[in-house]
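re the bet — no i am not wrong, look at it urself. input seq straight from the record:
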Amino acid sequence: MVPPPIEQARMLSYTPSQIRDSRLKLESAGRVLPVRAAFVILVRNSELHELRATVRQLEDQFNARHHYPYVFLNNEPFTDEFKQHMEWATSGDCHFGLIPYEHWSMPPWVDRVRAKWAMAMMGNRVPYGDSESYRKMCRYESGFFFRHPLLADFDYYWRVEPGVEFTCSIPYDPFQYMVRHGKQYGFAISVREFPLTVRTLWSTTNAFRAAYPEYIAPNNTLRWLTTSGGRYNMCHFWSNFEIGSLAFLRSPQYMAYFDFLDRAGGFFLERWGDAPVHSLAVAMFLNKSQVHYFDLGYYHKPFQNCPTDPDYNEQHCFCHANRSMVFNEDSCTSAWLAL
């Protein structure tokens, strides 16, 4: 997609360091990490202080002992203030990248008038119902973040968002766990989607399955997110926390699925979220042994996961196990574990 002239002019005004800027720690020279992995954070400059708190907690609970790098992505150039504060807060190398216009825009095949009308009709009936920028974010997280050049040298990612909390120390390396046990996707919280936002996502997914039957894993887990009548039950992994294989997202089957959904226009004509998109893809293309439930301390308003093992909780956590999302009727985690 060719950007409009005003966007082309704006991009030409950016300096190389505004488009891509890697700031390496002196102490990381010669260091070889056990897994080619990074934290990936989509963030605005205005979210600096929320992210500082999150990153400091993540460092204290885990990364100060491991020094994995960070990849920060933004649809606007990062400020020098943002970069400096993130350098101070982190123990790993910091990479700052600008998102290309064509990855953060409404594609030309989507009827903009229809999309704007759909946003107005959805309004405040669901969170971000009338937000175009939220839809751009969902489309980007569904189909583009893993294509950014800053992620080219990594095999695994850990998604982090500003304002989240890590409420337990993590005494092992989740990245190494994923590699050693052949895991492709990991989650901490599952929840149900607002039906209004995904009215045609399931029918579009079924159309994809009919068109590409060779991509569907024979021992898939589609039964986890379907009713006895074969309808979508709205279950999904809450993708604000996920640890995953970049090879999975770059695979022919996932790329074909995203392109199929993108052409259907539902990211804008409805409000398809990256969480149900990732979840449906995981359920279609992976088997259960390739997916892992990380029972660690994690809070994203308004939900949390808190380990229920009393010894682990007492030694490592400051969360309340009885408030964990697994006990909420809208959680799908128990059903997943029972597969």
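see?? The mean pLDDT is 95. told u. also The radius of gyration is 20 Å. so pay up
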